[in-house]
TrEMBL record:
Enzyme class name: lyase
Organism: Pseudaminobacter soli (ex Li et al. 2025)
Molecular-function annotations in GO: ornithine cyclodeaminase activity
Gene3D superfamilies the UniProt entry points to: NAD(P)-binding Rossmann-like Domain, ornithine cyclodeaminase, domain 1
The EC number(s) this enzyme carries: 4.3.1.12
Top-level taxon of the source organism: Bacteria
Signal peptide: none
Protein's name in the database: Ornithine cyclodeaminase
Family annotation (PANTHER family): KETIMINE REDUCTASE MU-CRYSTALLIN
Length: 353
C-alpha cells in the first residue's frame, strides 16, 4: 500500500478486520488466504527461517515470529495463556507488521488475533488437501474453543468437509460451536467423549488449549487411513497425542527445528524422520500414498504462514478504506535533523498556548 506521507502507516483494527472478513465472506477469505499460504510454501527456500523467539513463564508464553522473502519482512507478536479465560481474556492474542526490506519502513500494522485464527485454519486445510483421504467428508474436532469454528469452515471451504463430530470436556463449548456453525451447511453431532467423536471420521482435528502433556487421542482410537490435524500441541511440554500414534504415522511438519521443540514430535527421538510440508506441495516428495496410511500434520504455526496472511490483508485493503492512518514514524523535513523536529514541535505548542 502506498503512502505519500512517510510517517503514516495503515493500521487495521479489530473492528476493521472483522468488517473486512465479513465483506469478503468468511469462507471466501479462508480459500483466498489458503491460496497465499500455498503460494508461499511453494517458494519456501527463499525465506529466512528461524524458530520463533519465545519467553516462557508458568502462566504461558509470549513469542515473536519473524521472516522475510528478501523483499518484504513480516513479524507477529503472539501470546498463549490458557488460564486467561478465567479472567475473561483471550488465550491467544496477536498483532503483526509487514515492512519493506528495501527501506525498512513498515507498510502495515494489523491486529492478528482474528487473523491468526483464520491463517491457522487455512494452513490446516492446505495441509489436508495433500494429506487427507480422498473425498473425506467427516471431521472430528476435539476441543471446541476459539479455533474450532474456523477449522470447520476452512475444511468445508477448501475440501468440502460437511459433517462434524464435536467433543469438548466442557459441553457448553461444543454447544457454542454447534450454535455458531448452524445454518452454514454442516451436519453436526455433539459427542460425549473423544472416542465417540472419532468414530467414522476420516479427519481428526485436535485443538485443545491446556498447557501440559495430555493424551487427547490414545493409540486404540486411531484406525488406519485417517488424517490427524494436530493443532493444540504448540509449545514445549504441551502435547495432545499418545506417543504410539506418532510411531504409526507418517509425520508432516512446517519447520523441523521449531516443531521438534514445540510439536507432538518433542516426544520422539531428535532424529525421528519427518517430512517437510513444503516438499509435498512442490512435488519433491509424496503426501498420502495409500488408503491405509495414517498421516499426521504436526502443526505448531510458523512465521511464513503469518507472512502470507499479512500479504493477503495488505492486498485486500487496497481501495477498501478499512484501515486507520497511524502516525507511527518520525518524519522530519530534513532526515538528519530529528532534534530540530522536536524543537519545531515545541514552538508550535507554544504558539497554541
Amino acid at each position: 500500500m502506498t503512502n505519500p506521507a512517510l510517517n503514516i502507516v495503515p493500521f487495521v483494527s479489530v473492528d476493521n478486520m472483522m468488517t473486512l472478513v465479513l465483506r469478503v465472506g468468511v469462507e471466501r477469505f479462508l480459500v483466498e488466504l489458503a491460496g497465499y499460504i500455498e503460494e508461499d510454501f511453494k517458494r519456501w527456500p527463499v525465506f529466512d527461517k528461524t524458530p520463533r523467539v519465545a519467553s516462557h513463564s508458568r502462566e504461558g508464553v509470549i513469542e515473536l515470529m519473524p521472516t522475510s522473502d528478501g523483499q518484504l519482512y513480516g513479524f507477529k507478536y503472539v501470546n498463549g495463556h490458557p488460564s486467561n479465560t478465567r479472567d475473561g481474556r483471550q488465550t491467544v492474542t496477536a498483532f503483526g507488521v509487514l515492512a519493506d526490506v528495501g527501506n525498512g519502513y513498515p507498510m502495515l500494522l494489523t491486529e492478528m488475533t482474528i487473523l491468526t485464527a483464520l491463517r491457522t485454519a487455512a494452513t490446516s486445510a492446505v495441509a489436508a488437501k495433500y494429506l487427507a483421504p480422498k473425498n473425506a467428508d467427516t471431521m472430528a474436532i476435539i476441543g471446541n474453543g476459539a479455533q474450532s469454528e474456523f477449522q470447520a469452515l476452512a475444511f468445508k471451504a477448501v475440501l468440502g468437509v460437511d459433517k462434524l463430530r464435536l467433543f469438548d470436556i466442557d459441553a457448553s463449548a461444543s454447544r457454542k460451536a454447534a450454535s455458531n456453525l448452524a445454518g452454514k451447511g454442516f451436519d453436526i453431532t455433539i459427542c460425549h467423549s473423544a472416542q465417540e467423536a472419532v468414530e467414522g471420521a476420516q479427519i481428526i482435528t485436535t485443538v485443545t488449549a491446556d498447557k501440559q502433556y495430555a493424551t487427547i487421542l490414545t493409540d486404540n482410537m486411531v484406525g488406519n487411513g485417517v488424517h490427524i490435524n494436530a493443532v493444540g500441541g504448540d509449545c514445549p511440554g504441551k502435547t495432545e497425542l499418545h506417543r504410539d500414534i506418532l510411531l504409526r504415522s507418517d509425520i508432516f511438519v512446517e519447520y523441523p527445528p521449531q516443531t521438534r521443540i514445540e510439536g507432538e514430535i518433542q516426544q520422539l527421538d531428535p532424529d525421528h524422520p519427518v517430512i517437510e510440508l513444503w516438499q509435498v506441495m512442490t512435488g519433491e516428495t509424496q503426501g498420502r500414498r495409500d488408503p491405509r496410511q495414517i498421516t499426521l500434520f504436526d502443526s505448531v504455526g510458523f512465521a511464513i504462514e503469518d507472512f502470507s496472511a499479512l500479504r493477503y490483508v495488505r492486498d485486500r485493503l487496497q481501495s477498501t478504506g478499512l484501515y486507520e492512518k497511524l502516525d507511527l514514524l518520525a518524519d522530519p523535513d530534513e532526515p538528519r535533523d530529528l532534534f530540530g523536529m522536536l524543537l519545531r514541535h515545541a514552538a508550535k505548542q507554544a504558539e497554541v498556548a
